[in-house]
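Why do we bother with a discrete structure alphabet at all? Because it lets us treat a fold like text: something you can write down, compare, and reason about line by line. To make this less abstract, here is a complete entry for DUF4163 domain-containing protein. Read it the way you would read a sentence in a foreign language you are learning: slowly, and without expecting to understand everything at once.
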Amino acid sequence: MKKLLLFLFIISFYGYSQDLKKEILIDVNNDTINSETFLKKLKRSDVGYSIFESDTINTLKLVKSNKRFELFEHYKVGILDSSKKTKIISELELLTDTKINLSDVIVINFYIDEKAVNQRPCIEFYLSDYQYKNFFKKNKNVKQFFVTDKTYHYDSKKTIRDKNKIIEDLIFPNALKCGNYLIIFPTNDFIIKYGEYRQEVILEFINDYKVNNN
């Protein structure tokens, strides 16, 4: 995912400056390609694609994996309004007693009550990812929070309950089961993913940001 964050910021800026919705196809190296080439490469068993959607542009990016792709990943990208970011930070500080700076990268992993019966809830798979947790312990300028919705009374030592429903209303009104997340960068650019996700991708987004902003 080298230079992927730079690519995200470019499409976010480009999208907000256009009047009509556009569609861009790019390969794994972030080079623009035509639809014929895109579909040809997509036939490979180790290639899938992600959609990055802003208000006025859809970008379809080919991605590689060491396992066969069966689904694509859909992300929402854009620039967060400063007042909205301030409200999010204020609520997180209130809920967690954690100081958050405007220069911090903010990650919110958000879960709704699945009412799982005789099965392990999705949230436990994410919470048991120690590599993910250790990343944030080592990177003090990145603040990460596992947040559950107002009705989801999970282990309070591991998660934060959105008891005022502020986080859900501001960010996740359409939250899906099995996890959602938001990344806010100091530039106010954001990436949001609804539904089941891969946590290692979040770390790749953050590392790419760091590489391109040193």
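What the structure line is telling us, in plain words: The helical segments are 4-16, 35-42, 82-96, 122-127, 130-138, 166-170, 199-212. Confidence is low (pLDDT under 50) at residues 1-7, 9-19.
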